[in-house]
Write a structure and sequence with these properties.
mainly beta; Factor Xa Inhibitor; Immunoglobulin-like; 2 domains; nine-stranded antiparallel beta sheet; five-stranded antiparallel beta sheet; 1 helix; 17 strands; about 40% strand
């Protein structure tokens, strides 16, 4: 009888300094009916080869006569950008979404994520969309995303390409003394499970409540009184993705 292989049974490499191959960083564009920043519908950009992130700051000369002939520079306005290089793909959703946004002056919400769930996200304007089509090579395109405001760096970001089995039964009930009790479907095979909270249902932040594989409940402590929104961010496993949002009124 053939052995049933379970990928979760392999020992994990805990060496935090291990290198990352560039092929394991992928760029996504949020687009789709009902897509929001809180619940994005990520579209993989096809044919991508490179997507370097550049961050820079203007230099402000702060030197004076007392500096002994040496200069002093302060950071001015910061900017960031991602320059996407990709093979031109016909009928690729991600490619078409980028081109339409460029032609119609639409800012896009994008995410560059590595295989471990580390990601950079943010809104950007597409300020370049050019192609190259040599007769003896594949056609390619270069797309420049110029960031709007500060980029957001996150960890344990769910894999957009994983099967859609995200938790949809998260429920919250208020306890006493700034506590809330959560219940949800049993979580299996996740690389990381992060609870997020919000006071307005829009701006969520990671909470330090520990939730492990196999859990179906969690108690959240140290909450401020008033309405609190909850959701789970599950990276990997059968429940990969963001859960539904649960809400309750926390009491003192």
């Amino acid at each position: 009888m053939a052995l049933a292989i379970n990928p979760d049974y392999y020992p994990q490499n805990t060496n935090a300094s291990q290198s990352m191959a560039g092929k394991n960083l992928l760029l996504y564009i949020a687009y789709g009916e009902g897509a929001t920043v809180e619940s994005p519908i990520w579209n993989l950009v096809g044919g991508q080869r490179n997507s370097p992130l550049s961050m820079s700051a203007d230099e402000i000369d702060a030197s004076d006569k007392s500096s002994g002939g040496w200069g002093e520079t302060l950071q001015g306005t910061k900017t960031w950008s991602i320059e996407q290089e990709c093979v031109y793909k016909v009928n690729d959703n991600g490619f078409d979404i980028m081109r339409y946004a460029f032609l119609n002056d639409i800012p896009v919400y994008l995410m560059r994520r590595d295989k471990n769930g580390n990601a950079v996200k943010g809104f950007a304007n597409i300020t370049e969309f050019s192609d190259d089509n040599p007769h003896d090579d594949v056609a390619t395109a270069t797309v420049t995303f110029s960031g709007i405001g500060a980029p957001e760096f996150s960890t344990n970001e769910p894999d957009p390409g994983a099967a859609d089995g995200a938790i949809d039964d998260l429920a919250a009930t208020a306890g006493t003394g700034g506590q809330a009790n959560l219940t949800f479907t049993k979580i299996n095979g996740a690389a990381a499970i992060v609870l997020q909270t919000s006071t307005n249902g829009i701006d969520f932040a990671d909470d330090d409540t520990v939730i492990s594989n196999g859990a179906t409940t969690a108690t959240v402590t140290g909450l401020d009184t008033g309405v609190t929104y909850f959701r789970l961010k599950v990276n990997g496993g059968a429940q990969n993705g963001y859960s539904n949002v649960a809400v309750c009124t926390v009491t003192a």
